[in-house]
Amino acid sequence: MDTEPAVRADAPAPAPAGEQRLPEPLGAEFLTRPDSTLAAFRETCPVVRIRTPAGRPAWLVTRAEDVRAGFLDPRLSLSGGRVPDPGVRRRALDVTLVNYDPPDHTRIRRLATPALTPARMAAHRERIERAAHELLDAADAARGHGPVELMDAFARPFAFRSLCEVFAVPQEERAALHEPVARLADKAKHTPGEIEESVARIDAFVRGKMALRATAAGDDVVSRVLAAWREQGGATEDEVASLLAMLLLAGFDSTVQAIGMSVAALLGHPEVRHCLRDEPRRIPRAVDELLRWDTPGPFSTKRVALQDIRFGDTVVPAGSGVLLSVASANHDPRCHADPGTLDPARSTAARHLTFGLGPHYCPGSALARLELTVALTGILGRWPRLTPAVPLHELVWGGGYLHRRLAALPVLPDGPA
């Protein structure tokens, strides 16, 4: 959800007079192989000033100890020290949790906590498993003896259906909701007018659900958030609508990409894939290792230093943009022994930072883990001889440095044993 204005690749921002030109390491090659770029900085210059693809300077923090400290440091601000005016009327998504710091972030986020616990998400497991099985049935029926494009045939519809289950979206409303969700997940493919229309439709959807659940509560996310709001107060109607819209949007494409990246990792490690296929009880624990191994978000949401902040021997000046490198921290050998090995039994796997840390820890992490567990269990159980349909190094990566996107993942369900 965090983006920067696009700039032309052939017209990088010039360095100010007298200033040394900053490295620009986060381009197309980075999207394909972020580990190589990040490891080079982590081991030689762990806190370094760079220029982003949008032409903006930022400090890149790459070692796990420093990244963890950054997540917990209140001087690193998501809002840049600005507080949205609660008196200004806003649509859902105009201002979301990534625009707030504590204590405002805390008073809004706490409304979602009771709705997204592991126990609450587990109550939806049977319906989410049914969705996975139905989509795999459809993929089998459509493919004949050919390959399956896993992202379109399974990952995207599965993530969307899972969200519809936890938000209790009726079947007859799902097609209309899918279009704005898909558009906002991949804004680059759509016009500004289409994006504006999609935001308006999400706003109308969320507020309609809020009005409905106010008089007919259920066991879904909207009902639980509204119940917490009635009990605790502390937020405006616009803030609650934005919270719900953010949960809906943030839970879609990140999960789609996590499924694709996890399957791609297993395709590149057949011994691990065979182990999980033969012992599916190990999949829930392996999910954390797969989240450590690769992540759609190589960095947390960009932060601003409100004061001078020291990381090791380097002082990041007040006012600077800061990128905490989640992907680098997840592969830091100081935190994870032999990080280049995909080990589903790794004892430190749960210490990955893919969901963040501290006040901004991902509120939807329990749902994401459930979806990944169900998806991988279903795929490996249905297609025990799964293999890639193209060499893995030919997979196409897009999106941006804040959110990588796997364009397609063609697989052969009936590969060689």
Automatic annotation (TrEMBL):
A matching Pfam family: p450
Keyword Oxidoreductase: yes
Alphabetical keyword list: Heme, Iron, Metal-binding, Monooxygenase, Oxidoreductase
Listed cofactors: heme
Positions of the UniProt region annotated as Disordered: 1-22
Domain of life according to the entry: Bacteria
Biased composition (Low complexity): 1-12
Similarity field: Belongs to the cytochrome P450 family.
Protein name: Cytochrome P450
Organism name: Streptomyces bobili
